[in-house]
Each structure stands twice: as structure tokens, then as C-alpha cells.
């Protein structure tokens, strides 16, 4: 067991934490309070993602939120029978109206 682990206090900045990680060749830095109680862990990946995507939307815990976009198409959606599988519909969407169904049922 490590007698004197490398830790950070509550008021550490991201730049200082990254400097400590690079200096000591570690990827995770425990954050402790003045009593030595573990409050959390800062990872190098967290800091680098925050730098790479500074405008990313995050939830209250700091996790990245997931979003999706959709668009409307300017072509009519073909009305196939109910026997058409979802795989056919999946194929039509990205390929547009030029897709011709080979066999009509």
C-alpha cells in the first residue's frame, strides 16, 4: 500500500490537476478534503474532454448530455404494405426517393 499517495485538495484547478498528473505520470487524481476524506477522483480524460468540448451541454453531475437532430425530407414517403419490414424503412431513409423496391407484394 502506498504510504503517501498523490492527492489534491478541494480547491484545485483543472490546470494544476493536469500538471500534477503529467509530472507524476498518473491518469487519475483523488480529491480529498482537509480531513483526508475522499471526495472524488479527477481523471485526465475528464479534463481533456472539457477542453476539447467547452460548449458541450452537461447535466447537474457534469456528464455529457446526448442529443440528436432530425430533418424533414422534401420527398413523399412511399406507402408500402404492412408486410414491409423495418429494415426496408431503415434503408429508404438515408437513400432517398431514388430507392426502388424490387418486388411489390
What does this structure look like?
This protein has helices at residues 14-24, 44-52, 86-95, and strands spanning 28-32, 38-43. The protein has 105 residues and is of the alpha+beta class. Strands 1-2 form a two-stranded antiparallel ribbon. It starts with 13 loop residues before the first helix and ends in a 10-residue tail after the last helix. 1% of the residues are buried.
State the order of secondary-structure elements, H for helix, E for strand: HEEHH
- The radius of gyration is 26 Å
Number of helices: 3
What is the β-strand count? 2
In round numbers, the mean pLDDT is 76
* Quaternary organisation of the protein chains: single chain
Going by helix content, strand content and strand pairing, the class is alpha+beta
* Strand order within the widest beta sheet: 1-2
- Cα distance, first to last residue? 71 Å
Biggest sheet descriptor: 2 strands, antiparallel
Shape estimate: elongated
- Which band does the percent of strand residues land in? 5-15%
Q: In which range does the helix fraction lie?
A: 25-40%
In the predicted model, the low-confidence regions spanning at least 5 consecutive residues are none
